[in-house]
Design brief:
Length: about 350
Amino acid sequence: MTSEQLSYKDSGVDIDEKNKTFSKINQFVSTKNSRVLNSMGAFASLIDIKFPEYDHPVLTFKLEEPGTKQKLALQYGSLSTVAHDMINHLVNDIIVMCSKPLAVQDLIVCGKLKDEIITPLVKAMKDACDHNECSLVGGETSEQPGVISEETHILGASIIGVSEKADIIDGSKIAKGDLVVAFSSNGLHTNGYSLVRKLIEQKPEITNMLIAGEKFIDIVLRPHYAYYPMLKAVLFEKFIHGLAHITGGGIAGNLCRIIPDGLSAKIDLSLVKILPIFKFIKEQAGSVDADLLRTFNLGVGLIAVIKPEDFAKLLALENSEIKIYQIGQMVEDSTEKIIFEAELNWK
């Protein structure tokens, strides 16, 4: 037996400090959304699922984590931007099925709960939810000393959305002759960071190199685009045949998920508007085009498939940040879902 008393605090968990932090973040999970029936402190979140405006409501669920980007963000003091990445990624994944975002729950696992990290993280998630017109309704913050290091933070989140069953976009309406239309990304979003971290490890000087007047590290930590605020104006108008969020696997690895049997998307790679950051990574890493196409979005963050006569409806959404342009067309083909034509134009 020990001669000293051993407390939970001595073991690495300070409940008083945890409670102080929770009292601060409580304000970020309060909402005016009438569907949310309780506030932080309850054992679980209650969401009213009466949808009188829907004939046949279908709930959409999605779980996400921001991958190895969070390690890079923590290293460079930019962890809050990853909170935006995580929420925006979740929302993008459900809107491509024509689902309206409703509520988000978060998960933060840390070796040591630090108020100066946790509070800004939760606030950033709240801000991202507000931007996407959904509610942060709670979650879990787990302090695990001895399991992970004090400097480690592992993030995750889940979202619930709602769709009208008749309006669900699943690619089944895609037809021969439909256009394949790109929505530009603003950078890497949340994919390819294991390669980026390896590149920084080999060439640490690149973090401060300038690409179009901006530091490399600032560009790669830029938050993920959220496409819902732009697309909501037309998302429920029933003319979009397919939507694909371009994440890990690139254009081919994600667009193939919505293409019906017997059809193929013929993509003209020379039309892809490659962002300068990807040209820089290619030069520094010496990567071949095929590998880059499977690792990054290369400037295409979202793809829509529509009839040619509906292209003007999408083009009307274009703004100073997000460009919209055709990169291909649907053709009959029973062997391959994606056919790449021409080559990427790095000039």
